[in-house]
Write a structure and sequence with these properties.
By secondary structure, the chain is α/β, with parallel strands linked by helices. The protein contains five helices and six strands, in the order E-E-H-E-H-E-H-E-H-E-H. A six-stranded parallel β-sheet has the order 1-3-2-4-5-6, with helices on both faces. Helix 3 links the parallel strand 4 and strand 5.
């Protein structure tokens, strides 16, 4: 597994049929470091012909008071979301996660358009983008996430049990190891 943490830049693996990349989108402010848990769950032996790149927007050191750091972070996420083969969304309890909700709305539409063969822009988007979505059972907007996706993307199963993170990791690993 290759691990990319903001602000490290990754340019993608286009042309490598057996490399998959996943962006860890989700709650950060006020949330436990669920990303570290997910990285641990994804750090397992894969099919020998597969490689996984995990992109983590949560920085080890992030000081919002440093001029320009917020703009740099937003640009980093914008770039890497478009490089990813898959986006894993996790909504943690005790957070509101408005930016993550926004990103889920954007990417649930864009990934559907991409899968349907309709390009959404002339940008750097890949021809497909898998989505994996999990919601902690105590996330305040859990019902909204589940219901909105049931209407707009019934093909996506929202993992919303107490084992949601582990369930998401299992889905990602099955996707990476597919034949």
């Amino acid at each position: 597994m290759k691990y990319v943490e903001a602000p490290e830049r990754w340019e993608g693996s286009r042309g490598y049929d057996f490399t998959e990349s996943v962006f860890l989108a989700g709650s950060i402010t006020g949330a436990r470091n669920w990303q570290a848990e997910m990285v641990g769950m994804l750090s397992v032996p894969l099919n020998e012909r597969r490689e996984l790149v995990v992109m983590n927007p949560r920085r080890a050191n992030f000081d919002i008071n440093v001029p320009g750091v917020a703009r740099e972070q937003i640009a980093w996420e914008h770039h890497h979301l478009r490089k990813a083969d898959a986006i894993l969304f996790w909504f943690e309890e005790n957070t509101l996660s408005p930016i993550t909700l926004f990103e889920l709305g954007v990417w649930s539409e864009r990934s559907q358009q991409l899968k349907g063969g309709v390009p959404w822009s002339a940008g750097t988007a890949r021809p497909t983008c898998e989505l994996f979505v999990g919601v902690h059972p105590n996330f305040a907007r859990r019902f909204d996430v589940v219901e909105q996706l049931a209407l707009s993307r019934p093909d996506i199963t929202v993992m919303d049990s107490s084992e949601g993170l582990a369930d998401l990791a299992a889905l990602v690993l099955a996707w990476v190891n597919r034949e």
